[in-house]
Design goal:
By secondary structure, this protein is α/β, with parallel strands linked by helices. It has 9 helices and 11 strands. Strands 5-4-3-2-1-10-11 form a 7-stranded mixed beta sheet. Strands 6-7-9-8 form a 4-stranded antiparallel beta sheet.
Length: 293
């Protein structure tokens, strides 16, 4: 998989050129917050010789670089299409596409109301532990990928184009350790902390036009209605106007496909063929069966 994009056939010359495989990241290509195995990356590389491949995740590109890329190889060179934050930040063949801004859409006043309510609500939740970064606003930096790994600090963002999308809310805090995340996940299954939190937000802000999507182990995403993972499909469909390839079959693989999960909308969308998986091993098994890999 750690090869330059140029070693793969052009999109219009792939053997199964009207098919694309889109993947969720956590729980589908990688363990939650973990890294993809060499076996998974090699399988994806083999698949890319047959058809187009892409990922669509709720996290920002920096996190996806950590999980799917390497210190010397940018993740945007390893997939034909890279959709961070559900496609609000998008790359095609290593080049960034038009992005969107959550705060510009919502407005600063409403954004502050939303964040203040979240922080007050979190302060009253009784969790086993609480760590830092309860509300994360996700920035994207436009970097020269050829210069090395993605590393955009707050200061460096002044020197590049800033892309901002959804917010991520975590009752326990995103700085929790792996063990604390797993413990909280079990706690949340029993006490429905995130489910109740989302219900409170829907009741408080019914006219904000927001969608709340529970995903991963410890958090949920907040974004404008329609900006779920189906948002990325517009980029897939526009490929016909770029290379002439009309993707008539869009396979999507995800693990949070039940209603309320962050894969649900794209899994159920009439434009996709949805495949529910439980882990990366099941994803690999399906790909081998479907594409004779």
């Amino acid at each position: 998989m750690a090869q330059a994009a140029s070693v793969y056939p052009p999109l219009e010359d792939r053997p199964v050129k009207e098919t694309i495989c889109l993947f969720d990241v956590d729980g589908t290509l990688t363990p939650a917050r973990g890294d993809a195995t060499p076996q998974m990356l090699q399988l994806l590389s083999s698949l890319r010789h047959k058809c187009a491949i892409g990922f669509v995740g709720g996290s920002d590109l920096i996190k996806q670089q950590e999980q799917l890329g390497t210190p010397s190889i940018p993740v945007v060179s390893l997939f034909d299409f890279c959709f961070s934050e559900n496609g609000l930040t998008a790359y095609r063949l290593g080049q960034q596409l038009t992005s969107q801004s959550f705060i510009s859409w919502l407005g600063e006043d409403k954004y502050k109301q939303l964040v203040n309510f979240c922080l007050r609500y979190i302060s009253e939740i009784d969790c086993p532990v609480k760590r830092g970064t309860f509300v994360e606003f996700r920035y994207e930096g436009l970097e020269e990928w050829s210069n090395g790994p993605l590393a955009v600090s707050v200061i460096e963002q002044a020197n590049c184009m800033i892309r901002n999308g959804m917010i991520n809310v975590s009752p326990i805090g995103r700085n929790a350790t792996v063990k604390e995340r797993l413990d909280y996940q079990n706690f949340d299954k029993e006490h429905k902390i995130r489910e109740k939190f989302v219900a409170a937000l829907k009741e408080k802000f019914p006219d904000f036009g927001l969608t709340f999507s529970i995903g991963g182990e410890i958090s949920f995403d907040v974004f404008p209605a329609g900006w779920d993972k189906t948002y990325c499909l517009q980029h897939i469909k526009s490929e016909k106007n770029i290379s002439g390839v009309d993707y008539k079959t869009i396979h999507f693989f995800g693990d949070k496909t039940d209603k309320g999960g962050n894969d649900y909308e794209i899994y159920e969308d009439e434009r996709t063929v949805g495949h529910a998986v439980k882990n990366p091993e099941e994803t690999m098994k399906l790909l081998k069966e479907m594409f004779d890999l």
